Amino acid sequence: MQIVGYHTGPNDPALLVATGGSVEGVSLEPGVELSYPLGDRHCAGAIDDGTHYPCDRPGTPYCERHTQDWAPTYTEEEYAVYLAAFAPATFKVGITRSWRLDTRLREQGADRAAHIHTATSGPIAREVEREIAAGMPEAVRVERKVASLAATVDSGAWEALLEEYSPVETFAFDYGLALEERPVAEIIAMGTVVGTKGRLLVLQYAGTTYTTDLRELVGFEIAAEATRDHQSSLGAF
Ligand SMILES: [Zn+2]
């Protein structure tokens, strides 16, 4: 049994767990109990048409052979250029196909966002992004996103930035986490799901609130005692 992937975004966040070649989506909705003690970690292999093909190579989450080339390809369709805010005051610029904008922002766990420009193609959007990016990051490190948990956006700084761009549309997202303190960053798949914010999973376990980057779970084997009788171990702590 191995964790082989995850789904983020607005609909049905899930951990993908493979057993003997078949892949199951384990819901990450609030209230779900996870009981996956982590064992060894190695390449998560490949999933093709619902079948998991395991791989023993040591690279994580994927070995060289199974690392997909994520270099984006920009198509000739409408793109949105956006600004995204991560509490308290990390702002980035990005582009996505217009129809995916809301999903893309939630996948990243943005707290606020603004659609600031519409481009007729990906390459044009990329040019606009580059110009804006001169003074702003195009990527936000996970540590910054962890820091955004239990924080609120610096509205003054955000509104001041937006004034420079006259947004087409603005967004404010609530991930329903209602955290009073920043969770402890830990690689863990045990406990009660509090919720997800982009790739960050928030769990409550033994009285402590933890957050895990879902990508950091990919490739872990589930230790044997959990797989023997998973159901009976639910809620056992
Ligand atoms: Zn591999």
Bound molecules: zinc ion
Biggest sheet record: 5 strands, mixed
Strand order of the largest sheet: 4-13-14-15-12
Structural class based on helices, strands and sheet pairing:
alpha+beta
The proportion of residues in beta strands is 35-45%
Rg over CA atoms = 19 Å
Count of individual beta strands: 16
Instruction: Please state the average pLDDT score.
Output: 91
Percent of residues in helices comes to 10-25%
Helices and strands, in N-to-C order?
EEEEEEEEEHEHHHEEEEEHEHH
For the terminal residues, how far apart are their CA atoms?
22 Å
Give start-end ranges of low-pLDDT stretches.
227-237
Seen as an oligomer or otherwise, the chain set is single chain
Summed up, the helix count is 7
Shape: globular
- Overall domain count: 2
Fold and architecture overview:
With 237 residues, the chain is of the alpha+beta class. It has 2 domains: 2-62 and 178-233, no CATH class; 79-172. It has 7 helices and 16 strands. It has helices at residues 101-108, 122-133, 142-148, 155-163, 214-217, 224-228, 230-233; strands at residues 2-7, 14-19, 22-27, 33-35, 38-41, 46-48, 51-53, 79-86, 90-97, 112-119, 169-172, 184-185, 190-197, 200-205, 208-213, 220-222. The strands form 5 sheets. It has a 5-stranded mixed beta sheet. A 4-stranded antiparallel beta sheet has the order 9-8-10-11. Strand 13 (190-197) and strand 14 (200-205) form a beta hairpin. It is globular, with a radius of gyration of 19 Å. Bound molecules: zinc ion (ZN).
What order do the helices and strands come in, and which of them pair?
Layout: E1 2-7, E2 14-19, E3 22-27, E4 33-35, E5 38-41, E6 46-48, E7 51-53, E8 79-86, E9 90-97, H1 101-108, E10 112-119, H2 122-133, H3 142-148, H4 155-163, E11 169-172, E12 184-185, E13 190-197, E14 200-205, E15 208-213, H5 214-217, E16 220-222, H6 224-228, H7 230-233
Parallel strand pairs: 12-15
Antiparallel strand pairs: 1-2, 2-3, 4-13, 5-16, 6-7, 8-9, 8-10, 10-11, 13-14, 14-15
